[in-house]
Amino acid sequence: MSRPQHHFPTSVILRIAIWLIAGVWCAPILLAAVAALRAPKRLAMNPGDILGGEPTFESFIALQRSGGGDWLRNSLIVSAIAAIVTLLCSLPLAADISRKSPISRRLSDLLMLTYVVPTSFLSFPVLYLAVILSLRDSLVVLGILSAATSLPLAVMVLQAQAGTAAGQLMDIAALERLSLAQRTWHVIIPTVGHSVLAIAAIAFVLAWSEYAYSLLLLSSRLTLSIGLPHLLSGDVWRWSELLAAVAIVGLPALFLADVVTRLVNLLRLRQAGV
Amino acid sequence: MIVQRRARATWSATSIPAILLFLLTVAVPASVAVLYAFTGKRLGEPVAGFTLTNFSSALREPLFTAALRTSLRFAVVCVVTKLAIGYGLAGILTHAGRSATAALRLLLLPWLIPGSAACLLWVWLLYQPSGVLDHLVRSVLGHPSRDILGSADGAFWSLVAFNVWRETPFWALVFFASRKLVPPQLQEELRLAGTSTWFAERTLVAAYSAPTVLVCSAISFVWTFGEFQSIELITRGGPSNHTQTVASVAMDIGYAAGIDLGTAICMMLLTLPIILPAVLLLFVIAKRRRAALIT
Q1: Is the per-residue pLDDT at B134 higher than 60?
Q2: Which of B64, B45, B63 is nearest to B260 (CA)?
Q3: How many pairs of residues across A and B have Cβ atoms under 8 Å apart?
């Protein structure tokens, strides 16, 4: 009598595999969060010795004294401005493209040229223009520049979602003589609401990682991108404060990861017609 | 007819914010950059006449040719690795079930933290003599430590590893989302025909994912080719300029060494004949494949 064969489900193997991969992939960040709880003096002597010693919050306090709180606040301001500007520019354009406006379709193709030109190429003339217009050290300008990076992606995502249904609704809205604000509020936003949140999250993330423009434009009002390297300059490298900063930014990153993942799942379900 | 014409005019007006943003942040700076390149302008000096001296300065710059080779090698290796791993991860996420999305949140962390934090985190890992890896090798494994960032190959592959670690999750997310473009009825037909999942992946999913993969390749190539932050923060172009890319050399010349913006911009302009054809080719192929799928 032969034994029954039990086939281990493939999905279970893949589930274990993806969790192992995810664990290894984010291990450096988790290690940093653990190491941030060590005493700064012990970390300064041996940065690689993660465990050992009593946990303490001295690193976080030292980071706040070094200006980490200001850097985080400035980064959040820039990212929020970038997200708002991206949405304000991309929503109407995406609605226009979905209505097959020829000008807007050409503009959408032109916007993709933004990705052909590296930021480092544009950063010098931007610096020159900022100096002439006395716009250096402006968080608003940095937010607007960061929005330009996420705009083409935003338009690509939104025009796929805006689609025919929104176009027909917009026709009805035009016949009903609704204002642009009313059409945006009652038609566009309900149709593409989830995509809007996803785009806002991505614009936020791209903005708070912006480095080249921040390096050239900001001198007194630093963001995280250019403030953190100061911790590893000079004779004494402040490892503890750096690791505390990584642990702190990991929290909003986890929240953003949750938002982006939920929205991607919703978009997948909508694309599947569920 | 009048309503349609009015509607069309209104629709065009709603594109004005996007047009303004594009003009102010891309078109105008790009035009100014070209002006600098052909007029030998320095910051604080008036515009000189038309000249090609900046181009000859850029080509004579000893680091330029080596930096160009490094940039190309870096971009190609990173893009191929990222897309291969990202595509594989997307496949695993698709077939692993619902709990996979929780794992996806962890996977996204490297991409979601600020770039500087990620770069300096790797400096902490690779720092010699007492970084995490060094401590692990000496204390736990008992081997003598090696200065990874101190050797040309070690520094280069560290940058590749960092770039792959940071950006692969984003591309995995894009591919994971794009897999829903595959029509469910076709998947069902393949399943009823008794074909394996692997066959469906190789044929149907690959065909429908191809346009997304191609567009992502193009964007990733440009971003990686112009990568400056990780080189500046992790290796500073070293050791002995072995990891300098065109972007980092241009930044050093344009910003740090007397604000010679003209030469710095010329260096970037000289890379456009390499970037543009590759990117445009990928976009055109992606558009054709998408059109073929629709028909």
Answers
A1: yes
A2: B45
A3: 293
The length of chain A, given as a count of residues = 274
| Chain A contact for B200 (CB, 8 A cutoff) | no
B10 contacts A120? CB cut-off 8 A: no
Q: Which of B107, B113, B215 to mutate to test the interface with A (most CBs of A within 10 A)?
A: B113
To the nearest whole number, what is the mean pLDDT of chain A? 80
Q: Is A236 exposed, middle or buried (0-12, 13-18, 19+ CB in 10 A)?
A: exposed
Cβ-based neighbour number of residue A12 at 10 Å: 11
Q: What Å distances lie between residue B93 and A200, B87, B104, CA to CA?
A: 24, 10, 8
Q: Is B124 on the interface with A (CB under 8 A)?
A: yes
CB-facing half-sphere around the CA of B141: CA atoms within 13 A: 11
Indicate the pTM of the whole model.
0.86
pLDDT tens digits for range A171-211: 777 777 777 777 777 776 676 677 778 788 889 988 989 99
What DSSP string runs through A239-257? HHHHHHHHHHHHHHHHHHH
**Which tens digits make up the pLDDT trace of B65-86?**
899 999 999 999 999 999 999 9
**Chain B residue numbers touching A17 (CB-CB < 8 A):** 92, 96
**What value does the mean pLDDT take over residues A49-53?**
74
**CA-CA distance, B32 to B36, in Å (whole number)?**
6
Tell me the chain A residues in contact with residue B103 when contact means C-beta distances shorter than 8 Å. Answer: 18-19, 21-22
Report ipTM (2 d.p.).
0.84
